[in-house]
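Table 4 source record.
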Amino acid sequence: MKKFFVKIIVFFIPIFLICFLLEFTVRAIPNDYTYKRKYLETHADLEILILGSSHSLYGIDPDYLSKRAFNASNVSQSPKFDFFIFDKFNEKIDSLKFVILPISYFSLFSITDFGSEKWREKNYVIYYDYPNGSFSSRLELFNGTIKQKIESIMAWLLKDVTNKSCSEYGYGLKWSNTNQRDLHKTAVDAAKRHTHTVKNNIFFEENKNYIEQIIKKCLKKDINVILYTPPAWYLYVELLEEMQLEITRTYCYNLTKKYSNVHYFDFLNDERFLKGDFRDADHTNHQGAKKLTLILESIIKSLT
């Protein structure tokens, strides 16, 4: 029996070592999460912190803001992780004056760590030290295939291809060399994907709670919170479910009445954004991001 266990141990040791090496190497590949965490840890002089999902990641470029700003948003980043990032660095950023947060059509009714987006939780657990993640989010090897991990490692080692795709100030550059997608098709697909059951929605109260925790902490430190609903191509807007959109807008307007530091701007139907400003039906391209950022710049100046 003893010899049997020895054989088992001898058999599994190489497998364990290979897995450990893969995990260690994948984590070493530069990515947006490690970059953004390190930036926030070392820049206490920020005046503007941008949070949110891909709508702000690809929609707000700090290069066009006159105050020191950083874009800490990520794809599908829900209010839970917005609050986590804000709370983690709030005390370190002494000079913070503005927090910018998109409240999109889907923001109040979905979360990152659920359904098809659940795999993204590991990015916060592994690279931001988020303490409450599931067991499957503790390791890169639990997310994706071994083949994918090996391909990423080889691309990094042989071609210096990394998983970092943001600018110095956190703006998303991943789409910088891609053409505009079919606005009609992406409008239909995105509207369907973003529409949720609003009655008794299990995430509604949770998302509101995290948003208001950010607002309350900002209020104590005299920090302005700019909430905005991002611009979108007209067809996407036409396909949105009226009740879900109305609940979102009403909630945001009510926050401006409840908290003196909250300012809400609805750009969803803004006619200043034209067809050439969109990468797809609900995301701006670089041109649209510049336009949106400059609009926010004028709002910030008016509040200063």
